[in-house]
Design a protein that fits this description.
Layout: E1 4-9, H1 21-24, H2 29-42, E2 46-51, H3 55-64, E3 71-75, H4 84-91, E4 97-101, E5 123-126, H5 131-142
Parallel strand pairs: 1-2, 1-3, 3-4, 4-5
The structure holds 1,3,4-trihydroxy-5-OXO-cyclohexanecarboxylic acid.
């Protein structure tokens, strides 16, 4: 079981709840992080969450915090589609990485169909709303 889990949220995800709710739902990022933390605590795991709108800050966080994690959940936001320094930072990690998208990126605009993160991720969940994060956590807790 993964005991130290890191959740990383990329650009614009701090606006969840207000941001295009018909696509991304009504849950705020704080509510999602709280639900994840409660589930992890109930399972005896330690979960930390981090959000940034800046690719370099996400890379720094991976160097500093995700390095020692047993599992990483990441929604890279739009960096999914072009964030090569984020991809390279994730590629260094030994732990499983689950890429999560709230929306089904494959039924949206063509630029969302490519993920530069997917080749370094263990798996991907897309289109299941905020519950995708919870399913990723369940997988890590079971891994
Ligand atoms: C997203 C999908 C991305 O294409 C978009 O840029 C986001 C959110 C999702 O969770 O569905 O910011 O990663």
């Amino acid at each position: 079981m993964a005991r130290a889990i890191v959740v990383i949220h990329g650009p614009n995800l701090n606006m969840l709840g207000r941001r295009e709710p018909e696509i991304y739902g009504a849950m705020t990022l704080g509510e999602i992080d709280a639900a994840l933390a409660a589930r992890a605590e109930a399972a005896g795991a330690n979960l930390r969450s981090f959000q940034s709108n800046h690719e370099g800050a996400l890379v720094d966080y991976i160097h500093d915090m995700a390095w020692d994690a047993d599992g990483v959940i990441i929604n890279p936001g739009a960096l999914t589609h072009y964030g090569l320094s984020l991809r390279d930072a994730l590629a260094m990690l030994k732990s499983p990485i689950i890429e999560v998208h709230i929306s089904n990126v494959y039924r949206r605009e063509a630029f969302r169909h490519t993920s530069v993160v997917a080749p370094v991720a263990t798996g991907q969940i897309a289109g299941l709303g905020w519950r995708g994060y919870m399913l990723a956590l369940e997988w890590l807790l079971d891994a």
